[in-house]
Amino acid sequence: MLGCGILAAPLSAATLLNDGFDNGSIGPQSLPDTAQWYGSTSDNVTASTGSMTLSTAGGTTSGLVTAYFTDSGTVSLNSGETLTLSFVFSVTGVDSSVGYFRFGLFDSGGSRLTEQGQGAANSLFNNYSGYATLTNLDSDGSNIGLNKRDNLPNNALLGTTSAYSSLGSTGANFTLENNTTYTSTLTLTYTGTSIIMTQSITGGSLSGITHTLIDDSGSLFTEFDTVAISIQSAAANTITFDNINVSVIPEPAASSFIMTVLILGALAIGRSRFKRRG
Q1: How far apart are CA 32 and CA 38, in angstroms?
Q2: CB 259 within 8 A of CB 100
Q3: What is the tens place of the pLDDT at every residue in 157-169?
Q4: Do the strands 129-137 and 142-149 form a parallel or antiparallel pair, or are they unpaired?
Q5: How many helices (H) and strands (E) does the chain have?
Q6: pTM, whole model, 2 decimals?
Q7: Distance between CA 51 and CA 199 in Å, rounded?
Q8: Nearest alpha carbon to residue 14 among 81, 68, 67
């Protein structure tokens, strides 16, 4: 019976970060429950119980917030594995002005921020590689560009497109409404020969906003430790996050191996109990 119970239990994604800001703070680093979040200025990232806010100081200064979902080293994707970033958010101050909203998953190469206010452009970012979603926020609508950060070195992590090669811009245009809750998800699936990059957004009047493109360049990024989110001063006054999650779904072979080990262990326990009863 124990073996049957294990067979019925699905294996879930491994949670690397699940920060709901329940402590009302942007730190400290205590994974997976909390990350240390670094604002590009000394005071543009604040938190209250259950949320974190990135501010553009009333639409005057672009903002970047960065965190690391490993204490050291990177998460390495094996063939068949998927890395997922998801977050719940809302915006204020979106109007007809066009400004960018960008976020991505990166490999810092060990060159990490250590304090607040180190800027959106810093030599520490020179060789951060990875993938990012680049889009615009405005009342007239925009679609989403999926991009690869491979034009290095470049000291602006998300503040310039020159660091990126575009995988393409796809999907229908959409708009975000002020003070409306949305959920955005970015997934990177490594097939062994390509990275399948998918971004989706739901909430308010939006549904089915999904964009997928493939990096099959032969020069793929599969190591990650960094999440970063940036908003331009013209895009919005604030963006508030209720939860930010990073997780990895194991490759099917790994899941099967783990399941087999669990089943064999359960059977061994069952045999041991049977012998004791005999």
Answers
A1: 17
A2: no
A3: 999 999 999 998 7
A4: antiparallel
A5: 2, 17
A6: 0.85
A7: 22
A8: 81
Question: Tokens 């490999």 map to which residue?
Answer: 107
| Distances from the Cα of 119 to the Cα of 22, 27, 60, 155, 237, angstroms | 26, 18, 15, 10, 18
Q: What are the sequence ranges of the domains in the chain?
A: 14-252
- The contacts of residue 47 (CB under 8 Å, 6+ apart) are 21, 24, 25, 26, 37, 53
Place of tokens 């294990």: 6
pLDDT of residue 11 exceeding 80: no
174 Cα distance to chain centroid: 21
User: May I ask the CATH class of domain 14-252?
Assistant: mainly beta
Q: How far apart are CA 153 and CA 106, in angstroms?
A: 14
Over residues 233-257, the pLDDT tens digits come to 888 899 999 999 999 999 765 444 4
Chain-centre distance of CA 195, in angstroms? 15
Which two tokens mark 1?
A: 């019976």
